[in-house]
Design goal:
287 residues; nine-stranded mixed β-sheet; three-stranded antiparallel β-sheet; 12 strands; Arc Repressor Mutant, subunit A; single chain
Length: 287
Amino acid sequence: MNIVTIQDKNYPKLLKQIGKDAPKQLYYKGKWNKEIFNHCLAVVGSRRMTIYGRQVAERIVGEVASAGVTIVSGFMYGVDATAHQAALKVGGRTIAVMPCGIDLIHPEYQQDLYAEILNNQGLIVSEYEGSMQPALWTYPRRNRIVAGLCQAALIIEAGEQSGSLITAEFAKKFKRKVFAVPGPITSENSKGISQLLKEGAAAATCAGDILREYGFSSRFTPEGPYATQKTHNSLEIKIIEYLQREALSIDAISRNLGMPAAKMGTILSIMQLKGQIQQEGNKYYLC
């Protein structure tokens, strides 16, 4: 059994600084390298993630991870899982903090993500040993570790009663920077975000907002990674400009550009193969 105790010199320094809230021990899977804890960002958000939430998480988290920041989250479906995946996609490192025993995969259907984290120099950690099942009280306890490991926390989509707000409260308690991604004021998933922004959280609209906190710079332009790709076709550039504003259906794009939907479908398929855009339901959005 792999374990690091609070007396161990390899115990994460930032986590130890939270005092009585620090777990006495951490069980883990993966190769423990204390350098993984040097620059960490907590990323949490709604389990009922919207298309907007996914797009934001993939773009911002991917850029932050590619700059060398370790992404820490709670492995749940929704924003948590998307944050882990975004880090892995760019070759970054990520840490999953579990609300259950270290020998349990929860949720169990995310076995592939679990294995991918371990296969890419990431860590799975828990303060609980064995196959202990998660309980209502273990989730907020898990959240304090997520916040405690990190210099800052990023909240992407959160309702009024979201557990993500608990992580944000822990981050504030531990005197860590809290970032929140602004969302549509009509969305239930934006109510918790609006609350955080009113209470003084910093608005994060691009990776640069976060990377400045770490003294890093993004290798991407503010418009995102797709802006570095070669798009010689002026029509593709126009499509990208429209999708920068919002996700659109093929009919809406065709109408905006005055082109038959059948011809537009061919162009959009080529752009998908290039990795410039993705399709979710009947709408397209930028990668």
